[in-house]
Amino acid sequence: MERIYLDHAATTPVDPRVVEAMLPYFTANFGNPSSIYQEGRAAKKAIEESREKVAEILGAADTREIIFTGSGSEADNLAITGVAWAYRKKGNHIITSAIEHPAVLETCKELEKHGFAVTYLPVDEYGLVAPEAVRDAITDRTILVSLMHANNEVGTIQPIAEISKIVRAKGVLLHTDAVQTAGSIPLQADELGVDLLSLSAHKFYGPKGVGVLYAKKGTRLHRLIHGGAQEGRLRAGTENVAGIVGLAKALELAAAGLEETVPRLAELRDYFINKIFSRIDHVKLNGHPTRRLPGNINVSFEFVEGESILLNLDLEGIAASSGSACTSGALEPSHVLLAMGLPHETAHGSVRFTIGKDNTKEQLDYVLGVLEETIARLRAISPLYREQRGRKEK
Amino acid sequence: MERIYLDHAATTPVDPRVVEAMLPYFTANFGNPSSIYQEGRAAKKAIEESREKVAEILGAADTREIIFTGSGSEADNLAITGVAWAYRKKGNHIITSAIEHPAVLETCKELEKHGFAVTYLPVDEYGLVAPEAVRDAITDRTILVSLMHANNEVGTIQPIAEISKIVRAKGVLLHTDAVQTAGSIPLQADELGVDLLSLSAHKFYGPKGVGVLYAKKGTRLHRLIHGGAQEGRLRAGTENVAGIVGLAKALELAAAGLEETVPRLAELRDYFINKIFSRIDHVKLNGHPTRRLPGNINVSFEFVEGESILLNLDLEGIAASSGSACTSGALEPSHVLLAMGLPHETAHGSVRFTIGKDNTKEQLDYVLGVLEETIARLRAISPLYREQRGRKEK
Amino acid sequence: MYTEAVMDHFYNPRNAGELADADGVGEAGNPVCGDIMKIYVKIEDDRIADISFQTFGCGAAIATSSILTELVKGKTVAEAEKITNRAVAEALGGLPPQKMHCSNLAADAFHKALEAYRQNRPKPAPAAE
Amino acid sequence: MYTEAVMDHFYNPRNAGELADADGVGEAGNPVCGDIMKIYVKIEDDRIADISFQTFGCGAAIATSSILTELVKGKTVAEAEKITNRAVAEALGGLPPQKMHCSNLAADAFHKALEAYRQNRPKPAPAAE
Ligand SMILES: Cc1ncc(COP(=O)(O)O)c(C=O)c1O
Ligand SMILES: Cc1ncc(COP(=O)(O)O)c(C=O)c1O
Known about the structure:
heterotetramer; A: Aspartate Aminotransferase, domain 1; Aspartate Aminotransferase, domain 2; seven-stranded mixed beta sheet; three-stranded antiparallel beta sheet; 43% helix; C: Sufe protein. Chain: A; 6 helices; binds pyridoxal-5'-phosphate
């Protein structure tokens, strides 16, 4: 059976053209970029050309603003810890939101142990941070605001450019975790008005284990991984040359395709959402109705639990994900859904489908059929559904 | 012209069998190991099988002792910072040596800013740390001793097993940076008696951008990169699945080949050293005459500067490296050579050749010829050589 | 992640649904945790004559409920009562560690159903001396 | 890393060696830093009639020494004296940033050689009034 992969927010397959671009850097061009001889210079050149590509696509003013890291998480850690320690004398206050990725939240929690104070801003029912709440939270001790560009679970896109005006007017640095938006929607650091921006190659058909931190010129950063002088002394360790080349190639391909993919995926997304609502009752759309990533569908099916839905879909050849605690081995369901005000039981029943560039309408139609059957089957054995049936029927 | 690569301590080409093993994890098996569906489970399985392989080869008692990182540098940083913060209540003293890799030295320097005290032990003229010096340096505030297994520049192999007895008797943890020994000589964490051990795939024909920290069961560690629950909560970020598979495959191939490569490389090494000494005057061997890595040759050619030697060799198709300041853009020549007592000018004239598994005696003979001419040519224009010539002639 | 037995019971749950004329109903878990199990029992001649379950929860929760019904069906109450959550997990060939606590509650629900049955049934007439 | 001009002057250095009958010798740098340049000049009719260099140092150090000798050879002392380290680097099509300071000392050595020449030569007789 052909598998249908609908979890592109989790990771994506590497584009064959990206693999092709990477291959020479494993074998023929394997030099260490720090070496001065021919093999080293070739590797260095590959990295610097990749840096130029990435800088151009992100609207960076200088190639030195691009720092290659070992993941999106590392980029987030470097941005937040890096600014925290570099600006410690100026202040100790950081502002973020309740729905950030753990790479941001856990980094902030860690800094709290070292004398930093962190404000976790709430979000509304759609997952939006209020710009005024950012303004009100800033004090004269605030050194950094870190707000994600789009949420990985519900796809809500934050008004970063608007928030930037407030943050910059107060002379505070702004970081955005753009791991979900890089390669998915147009993304220009200068237009967004951010000082720091993280991304991760494996979210846009690039390899796993390589990310970027964009850090605007003049932003001081303390490094996270100490050692050699690589990446402008901001990230030690022999560079993952093949990975960096792959990241740049993937970002280039994604950027070139955006004009076509954004509207197409958004159309598939809306088609899928509408069909779910017309075919299944007691469903809730999580996230914002319009300000959401083109490929993101996040719905809660009441009276059933998310993991069991995923298992069932998986058996039918479909890959999707859930904010249920059971899918992550956590005790609590998704902190994002809870922050948006969902009751625990509804959060447990959430399923996220994220469409990628190769998904088709036919695949979605097949998924809809399986989904309808799955929900019916699981509701039939759910003690919660039975109780409800009398009260409200479609 | 066929290039002759003699800088295997800097990096190695990825073995084609390793590339082969990695390829499926870019495309067909691209799932996120945290996902519960088929694609995710396959990726998870690949990581866990790799972990088992690595654990077995390193003599680990439990697969959970193997933590995959984004580089050798990250493994070093995680070991040292991780132990420092986890044992902060027990003490704040760390012991290391003056000849460690920057990934260790700079991490220690960073910790000094956070209230830790670090002892940098000296080495003798061969680059050896005296076990008694370790004993004498340990106080009741000492929480960690970090000493490299073999030095990357001069190849000197430290008596880690002997030092372990002293360190463990005092109830102190022992970390070894085995980046240069993993895949080069037999390496068993249990036999060495270390609690933590770092390695990096690109030093043994694996990919760049992936490393391992072995951390013996019971060793508490504070993580460096915060976020998701990957790697037993010790290293957040979506796993570099292809890289991890490549690392394990490369280590497996290296381990299987050791019995054959160790004596063969040592023989080539000694042949090369002897020939240099018989053909070129005013040469000094840096490092230990016998306790050195099988592939390492480090010599100083007096009256000439290392970078100019490398440039000349490079023009003749040969890749080697140097402890000269000029090759790294640093102001000082190699901290390793200076710590071993070499005068600055001799350190500037050092050249390191590191032989790999595919080098041949014929290649070395060609290199010897070029080297002889190069040294003669550069000495002919050196103001230092002229002055010396009268005094001491061969 | 899951054994074949878990997947089989998840995909083809045995004895799912309500039991209209149950002698006892027991429930364990709560929706906040994401797992609720309801077990219905019918007792005849001191035996588990019929049993069914309803479960809101993950694959493990559904599978443990399903296999429990198979494990105890037809047994005497005294015998059936000995079942533990651990025995249920073992019958499935094991569960992932993080599932052992939260999703493995079927035996608890079953014990509550038996308790309810005891509460409900008319006290037996005292035996003639 | 290096321009073609640097590599050319490194590999085929011009005017390398000692000048037996030099009118002035100048030296810059020191072995601790890894760069020493020695410039020998022969002056005739107030012109740089001959010039040579000896250099211990990296590729950039050798190349700057070599091109300096070409740049000033044949010029009048007054003209040649205007040469700067920057001009030497430019004549090579530029140097890597980290090489600008430590390895770009040929002009300094040359200026010292001219100074030595002035110190050495017999003072010219004062012009008749
Ligand atoms: C001894 C030693 N430690 C650590 C490292 C760092 O490894 P990586 O470059 O993979 O970060 C290296 C090599 O660069 C090394 O030789
Ligand atoms: C919003 C967001 N931030 C950060 C990350 C972390 O990226 P990585 O897994 O490459 O470390 C992810 C994905 O895992 C993400 O979705």
